[in-house]
């Protein structure tokens, strides 16, 4: 049963695991992916052939050490990498997909589905739930909905609710998809087309929000590519980069799924379920928290992350909060940031000590 | 395995004798298993010590982000925050002890910080360098300039210590605010508690460091 009232008869959740579950089933870490991420957190992606999206963080001897922890990462409900969503069959006819008929899902729906999946793996309590960006929202929802099932929670570069600015950028992306004739009112899967232009423009806009001005300047400046003086033939390198980001994205992501998931983020406002008091969401919690933000992240800035840390203090929770100095913008949580990796790894080690996990 | 390799492989565990004097004295005052908040905890030396040796649920707030990162990377529950602004969000009586070591003289509003400490904690442990020490008095009298000592080592124009006070001043403030002084002591930098410890007037003259345990009367 979803928050919107619709009941999904069958739900499939695609997941990957790394490492070994110990006999006590006490060393499991759930990683929640961001908006356009997926379950391939630490292995080659089957579509793009690129390495896992967090392979600097998850693996043997890395901050999320797969020699020590059993790591699970699942594709969110509404996603397009195997979990039930707009691109999966609506009923028994495999040719008839959900498309835009797929009911609206919320972050809480995603977390409910993850909880079921984790239970099916025979795990009643997760050692940690970790995620950045939209993944961080899921972490907060986990800690609020199932405090007894979460020993440690690490929300990274996230927000307690989507701001008007966050919603505004998402809306530009959605309108761009709607404006693409190939979207065909969401039934593009019937003709076999994909609304590539619309989806790639959505990705380009979103990608700007993932980087800081400093990072863009450092990477591209005002450099040009090509030598002719025709107005739109030769382009700034930053344009070329964004076009590349857009065009590679459409090969791996479904437009309707993008609509579903961006909407789920927009609806996220954890405090609204608790009469507007974010602290109340965590009342009496015994979960250990580590909130991490990045100085140059303007999509989910430190202020929102600090608000989360303060609300946790208000609930008397055990909370670490650190802002990592980085000029890489929101995407810093996916990149090589040694201070961030040290803080994350150290926090988990400290928690493992408290949880009595074998080293 | 040779000695150097073994040293590198083993995590360095905290040894109390290396701990700053005032922290060691504070640790002696804290009951085992207590809930403790250390304001201005630096790299978390005291909270780690309290957790490992006293089984305390000890947490910290620190304003210097590099120290916070170091503490968190060491597995300690430390959050970035400011004593002047970040105590208000904690619920009443969240802690048994709230510690402010060598930080009182550097906050914007010391009186408000003390009030918050005794709102969120049952006891406040406050240490500060005593500005009433004879050496400071003598230097001011003799040279006519702001005294410069090991404890007060920075020139007046760049010192973070914007609210220095003496032991007598602190007794006065506690009385004025209605706080009970449960324990107090004054020591020199070597940690010697001299015979004058029972007499505030003498302590104010000879003590370099002061440590108070307060609670609401």
What would your notes on this structure say?
The complex is a heterodimer of chains A (about 350) and B (about 220). Chain A is built from ten helices and eleven strands. Chain A has helices at about 105-120, 135-145, 165-180, 190, 195-210, 215-220, 235-250, 255-265, 300-315, 340-355, and strands at about 15-20, 30, 60, 65, 70-75, 125-130, 150-155, 225, 235, 290-295, 320-325. In chain A, helix 9 (about 300-315) links the parallel strand 10 (about 290-295) and strand 11 (about 320-325). With about 220 residues, chain B is α/β, with parallel strands linked by helices. Chain B is built from eight helices and seven strands, in the order ααβαβαββαβααβαβ. In chain B, strands 3-2-1-4-5-7-6 form a seven-stranded mixed β-sheet, sandwiched between helices. The radius of gyration of chain B is 18 Å and the shape is globular. Residues about 1-15 of chain B have low confidence and may be disordered. At the A-B interface, strand 10, helix 9, strand 11 and helix 10 of A face helix 4 and strand 3 of B.
Which characteristics define this entry?
heterodimer, A: 359 residues, alpha/beta, Rossmann fold, Rna Polymerase Sigma Factor, Chain: A, 2 domains, 7-stranded mixed sheet, two-stranded parallel ribbon, 10 helices, 11 strands, 35% helix, globular, B: 217 residues, 8 helices, 7 strands, disordered N terminus
Give the mean pLDDT of chain B: 88
Return the domain count of chain B: 1
CATH architecture of the largest domain in chain A: 3-Layer(aba) Sandwich
Strand content of chain B: 15-25%
Task: Give a quick account of the main beta sheet of chain B: strands, pairing sense, barrel closure.
Answer: 7 strands, mixed
Order of helices and strands of chain B: HHEHEHEEHEHHEHE
Strand percentage of chain A lies at 5-15%
CATH homologous superfamily heading of the largest domain in chain A:
Alpha/Beta hydrolase fold, catalytic domain
- Rg of chain A computed from alpha carbons, rounded to a whole number of angstroms: 20 Å
